[in-house]
């Protein structure tokens, strides 16, 4: 039986791995959740047909992608949006719909050939909710499609636009250029996911973080935490 490896760090992807395992009868699935386990030695023992990387923020060494078919999933319509923090960069630019690109890993960051793309609505919901929605698309549409059809990846077409990974200090709400209810709501929700720096403001010796934002007709409601610096 052929084997595939799924390497991921997020709980929602791990949950979907086990659901995929139950429905994927023609392949044996192997899960990697620790970067130190992604070694050439371990992979040679497993000998996977594909290694899929949904939401994997660690470096993939060249010895791995040169020996195995490695597929990463990037939340932009490549080659537009290569680089870091694609969801946050898209939302802050006012973009409501994007695509998840499944691409072959090579020596160019997010520059590999494309297996397929799937539409993704990012117009509402927290970053965590959007990541969970993307995970379902990846696990129950994109990975099964690749396994069933073995598509030949095609070179990226279009103008390259590179995103910069957002820095922690850029989560300050006061950095928003055009402040209105919609832009503030988008700013809070795009940073609302585990391991991401939440939207905040500073008042003297206090830092106030905002999360679980809901957009109402004339207001934004949600939750906050106050920390003494």
Explained architecture:
- With 229 residues, the protein is α/β, with parallel strands linked by helices.
- The chain folds into 2 domains: 2-163, Formyl transferase, N-terminal domain (Rossmann fold), CATH 3.40.50; 168-228, Methionyl-tRNA Fmet Formyltransferase, Chain A, domain 2 (Roll).
- Helices cover 28% and strands 30% of the residues.
- It has 6 helices and 11 strands.
- The strands form 3 sheets. A 6-stranded mixed sheet has the order 2-1-3-4-6-7, covered by helices on one side. Strands 9-10-11 form a 3-stranded antiparallel sheet.
- Strand 9 (199-203) and strand 10 (206-215) form a beta hairpin.
- Helix 1 (11-23) packs parallel to helix 5 (127-149) and helix 4 packs antiparallel against helix 6 (181-190).
- The chain is elongated, with a radius of gyration of 19 Å.
- It starts with a strand and ends with a strand.
- The model has no long low-confidence stretch (mean pLDDT 96).
The secondary-structure element order is EHEHEHEEHEEHEHEEE
The main β sheet shows up as: 6 strands, mixed
Average pLDDT reading: 96
**N-to-C span:** 56 Å
Strand order of the largest sheet: 2-1-3-4-6-7
CATH uppermost class of the largest domain: Alpha Beta
Principal-axis shape: elongated
Tell me how many strands there are: 11
User: Uncertain runs with pLDDT below 50, 5 residues or more?
Assistant: none
Q: Which structural class is indicated by helix and strand composition? A: alpha/beta
- The name of the CATH architecture of the largest domain is 3-Layer(aba) Sandwich
Enter the CATH topology name of the largest domain: Rossmann fold
What percentage of residues falls in helices of 4 or more residues? 25-40%
Tally of separate helices: 6
CATH H-level name of the largest domain... which superfamily? Formyl transferase, N-terminal domain
Radius of gyration: 19 Å
Approximately what portion of the residues adopt beta-strand conformation?
25-35%
Estimate nothing, just give the exact number of structural domains. Answer: 2
Domain Methionyl-tRNA formyltransferase-like C-terminal: 170-226
InterPro entries: Formyl_trans-like_C, Formyl_transf_N, Formyl_transf_N_sf, Formyl_transferase-like_C_sf
Domain Formyl transferase N-terminal: 34-131
Pfam families: Formyl_trans_C_2 (PF21553), Formyl_trans_N (PF00551)
């Amino acid at each position: 039986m052929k084997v595939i490896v799924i390497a991921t760090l997020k709980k929602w992807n791990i949950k979907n791995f086990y659901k995929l395992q139950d429905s994927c009868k023609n392949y044996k699935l192997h899960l990697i959740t620790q970067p130190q386990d992604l070694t050439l030695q371990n992979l040679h023992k497993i000998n996977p047909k594909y290694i899929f990387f949904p939401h994997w923020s660690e470096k993939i060494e060249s010895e791995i992608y040169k020996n195995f078919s490695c597929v990463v999933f990037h939340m932009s319509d490549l080659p537009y949006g290569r680089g870091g923090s694609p969801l946050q960069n898209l939302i802050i630019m006012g973009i409501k719909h994007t695509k998840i690109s499944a691409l072959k890993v090579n020596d160019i960051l997010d520059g590999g050939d494309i297996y397929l793309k799937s539409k993704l609505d990012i117009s509402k919901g927290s970053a965590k909710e959007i990541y969970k929605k993307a995970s379902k698309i990846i696990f129950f549409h994109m990975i099964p499609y690749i396994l069933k059809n073995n598509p030949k990846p095609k070179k990226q077409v279009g103008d390259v636009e590179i995103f910069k990974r957002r820095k922690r200090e850029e989560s300050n709400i006061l950095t928003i250029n055009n402040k209105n209810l919609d832009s503030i709501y988008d700013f809070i929700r795009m940073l609302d996911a585990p391991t991401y720096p939440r939207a905040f403001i500073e008042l003297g010796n206090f830092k106030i973080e905002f999360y679980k934002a809901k957009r109402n007709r004339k207001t934004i409601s949600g939750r906050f935490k106050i920390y003494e610096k």
